[in-house]
UniProtKB/TrEMBL annotation:
<comment type="similarity">
    <text>Belongs to the cytidine and deoxycytidylate deaminase family. ADAT3 subfamily.</text>
</comment>
<feature type="compositionally biased region" description="Low complexity">
    <location>
        <begin position="267"/>
        <end position="283"/>
    </location>
</feature>
<feature type="compositionally biased region" description="Low complexity">
    <location>
        <begin position="432"/>
        <end position="450"/>
    </location>
</feature>
<dbReference type="GO" id="GO:0005634">
    <property type="term" value="C:nucleus"/>
</dbReference>
<feature type="region of interest" description="Disordered">
    <location>
        <begin position="267"/>
        <end position="286"/>
    </location>
</feature>
<protein>
    <submittedName>
        <fullName>Cytidine deaminase-like protein</fullName>
    </submittedName>
</protein>
<dbReference type="GO" id="GO:0052717">
    <property type="term" value="F:tRNA-specific adenosine-34 deaminase activity"/>
</dbReference>
<dbReference type="Pfam" id="PF00383">
    <property type="entry name" value="dCMP_cyt_deam_1"/>
</dbReference>
<dbReference type="Pfam" id="PF00856">
    <property type="entry name" value="SET"/>
</dbReference>
<dbReference type="InterPro" id="IPR046341">
    <property type="entry name" value="SET_dom_sf"/>
</dbReference>
<feature type="region of interest" description="Disordered">
    <location>
        <begin position="1"/>
        <end position="23"/>
    </location>
</feature>
<feature type="domain" description="SET">
    <location>
        <begin position="22"/>
        <end position="130"/>
    </location>
</feature>
<dbReference type="GO" id="GO:0005737">
    <property type="term" value="C:cytoplasm"/>
</dbReference>
<feature type="region of interest" description="Disordered">
    <location>
        <begin position="425"/>
        <end position="451"/>
    </location>
</feature>
<dbReference type="InterPro" id="IPR002125">
    <property type="entry name" value="CMP_dCMP_dom"/>
</dbReference>
<dbReference type="InterPro" id="IPR001214">
    <property type="entry name" value="SET_dom"/>
</dbReference>
<feature type="domain" description="CMP/dCMP-type deaminase">
    <location>
        <begin position="341"/>
        <end position="512"/>
    </location>
</feature>
Amino acid sequence: MVSSTSSLPSGPRGGPKHLNSSGCIIKSVPGRGRGVYAERFIPRGTVIEISPVLLFQKDEYENYGKHTVLDHYTFVWPENRMALALGLGSLFNHADPPNVSFSLDPPTESIKYTTVHDIQPGQELCIFYGHKIWFTPSEGMNTPERPVTPEDGWGGLGLIEAADTMGVAEEGVMEAVPRNPYEGGDPDDTINEEDLPFTRFKPIPEEEALESIRTVEAWVVDVPDPKHLGPLIKWIKQAKLESPDVAHLKRIRKDLTTKSTTLLLSLASTPPSDSPSVASAPLERPPLPDHLDLPEPYRAAVPASSALTTLSLELKNTIWPTMFTPKRKDEIEPWTRGQARWAWDAMRAAVAEAHSATALGEKPIAAHIAVSYKHSDDDLEGESISFTAHDTRTSTAHPLRHAAINVIRKLADYQASKYPAAPKSYLPIPGPSSDPASPTSTPPSTTVTPALAEPTQADPLAQNGTHYLLTNQTVFLTHEPCIMCSMALLHSRVKEVFYLYPMPKTGGCGSLTCLPQLKGVNHRFGIARWDAGSGVGGDEGVLRVGEEIDA
Ligand SMILES: C[S@@+](CC[C@H](N)C(=O)[O-])C[C@H]1O[C@@H](n2cnc3c(N)ncnc32)[C@H](O)[C@@H]1O
């Protein structure tokens, strides 16, 4: 017979894994016993567990409980009682400083556990037991001296409360950290577009103005005698000049005013590319059949893509007859509950970082490059490291130290350290900074030497010439990035940008202007604006900045 737990993932000691929806698992480690570990990234300020407690009266505990193993697990409770946390609550090991705070809630007879830092996947989640610990902490857990207070001891609360670190401390009152509304449920469930907590804008330009239409060069030939059209088209097939690159175009253009007919032969340059290093390469002029008396082929601009709207079709047809492929409704890829949960957590990470910034006297503006969405643990695709940064222009007195620039710089520095063999020509010299805005960084061009410019095999990013690429990555920002930051994000080839507060006077992602929609930019990215009132920002007032600020 198959046991009811046989399909569950295994946990410590071969038993089933604890089913915690906040990303916590139980693991056993020699020297520490069982402990609580993060299975995925958990943003700071996340309530990871609410454990109901079992209460012991004073005499009951003094006479019995205290003489049993329970003494390693119980918390001091008001009114001289002791409490045993059920669920994960009894399994948090001790650390000083901890990365999880806990607070007692006598009315509901429960203990709430909240992260006080961003937690990376695999990290242990620990609380602070107090200073009078009765065991020798395992290696790496020894901690700096702190003054012993009368409240110290197992159950000593209040040393690190999430509310303190969120900058809204008030005795006994925790800031209400908004719970992820997409916790639990089936991560594969599709969510209606209008039910998502943000509005997504189309990344593809509709090309509804003549100047926004992207073109590419093609070889064409005028065909003075219409009788030659049939044999020519047949010849194109035989000569294998048909190509999917021109499938969005019609083969023949008839100009009613000049009464001329022109035939499209093949592309004369490669289609526009998103890659900065790939230049549009000229393509050879195709041969023509000798037996037809035709003029020389010539190059002409043709639309680079089919028309998605009737207006765009009308405009494109003035350049060259183009195919009409209106967007079907189902072309917007629907989002799942799992993705929405991921996005919520990522935006929370940005929000939490902005709160830290305020505590440090900086502007409450932050950016978070999220770990790529993973459908399951087996999904190895995408980045597994996240980066978070806040605005530092106040402390550095450097007007360009915006959150988005800082987070790109963090990623770039990480990439540079990961690939130390990167050619010097690609690394900022001197110092570790790769920030183009850094006063200490020397422009790379001044450091190029032919001997060093050869990328090494160990450094795939260096082969692209940069460490700052965000290809396929999503950036979450508390505020709409300014024009400079939007351009930096575009330059870094970001896949999509989510922001919480629009900046009507300075925003470069839809408010003042929309950088990725401008003609001439060589990369386009998706934009999603978080809905006001979704609750992801927590206390809205803390993160508000003046309209004139460039975020
Ligand atoms: C509340 S329990 C925590 C869960 C426990 N590790 C288990 O497996 O049941 C407290 C006990 O965990 C162990 N412990 C907690 N923090 C530790 C640390 N930093 N180093 C070593 N042991 C620790 C001690 O044995 C302590 O009595």
